[in-house]
Amino acid sequence: MKRYFALLIISAVLLTPFSSCKKDKGDPPLLPPAGSMAIDFSNFDQPGKGDYSVMDSKNTPNSNWELAAGAALLWKVIIYSTLAVPVQAFQLAIDEQPVNIGDKTWEWNATTTVLNVTYNARFTGQVTASNNVWKMYVTKEGSGGFSDFLWFEGTSNPDGTSGQWKLYESPANPVEIVKIDWTAVSGTAASVKYTFTKTGNTFAGSNIEYGVTQNSLNAYYSIYYYNSTAEDFFDMDVEWSSTLKNGRVKCPKVFGDTEWHCWDSNYLNADCG
Hints:
Elements: H1 2-15, H2 63-82, H3 84-93, E1 99-102, E2 105-114, E3 117-127, E4 132-140, E5 146-156, E6 162-168, E7 176-185, E8 188-196, E9 207-212, E10 219-227, E11 232-240, E12 247-250, H4 252-255, E13 261-263, E14 269-270
Antiparallel strand pairs: 1-2, 2-3, 3-4, 4-5, 5-6, 6-7, 7-8, 8-9, 9-10, 10-11, 11-12, 12-13, 13-14
């Protein structure tokens, strides 16, 4: 009888699921969409006849498009010249498989090359009680290299519908330069708003919001920026078709009215009627 009970005990131990001895690591946090840092400038890359000056382009055949392109160009320069590395690193890292590193934190790793320089990215996401917390560390190889620079960080809702990024200028000057607020629908970015936050700069407070809609002019910018020629802040609204390329712009301080001013699919000024 004793032998019988001993066998029962041993069997019970052997049949106990080993998972009970392991901690459930759970699932990684829902990633922000790749587009949460991206603004589409493609409709404003065509060569224009003007000089992108909001004060001097009124008399050119495509001045309405040029006005919008000039304001967009200011932001394109900031994004591509200062933030190209962290933005590209993020878009590559989220395509990789994450590894659990403990404390409800997951890590994605990627390598990118910008201007023949190699950067290693380490992107972490931590699940907390109220939101997901994200951090991007970047290491530069070779001359002038640096290690584990926190290039941006942010938070997002657990359901991935909205969030915010804070990006820092550079390892040499690690101050906040841009804040990004974003929203998403079904895992795709619906709106992205860049705000220039670096203090001591006349451009500080300037912002651009990009988004997509279901309208015939299905893409838009809402821009508030410092115009150095006028030494004043300008408000501008831009709407365009991402397929037909026609669009319209509204800027009271340039046009002296609150009406829309349009361009056609060839980027030439057109009647809005």
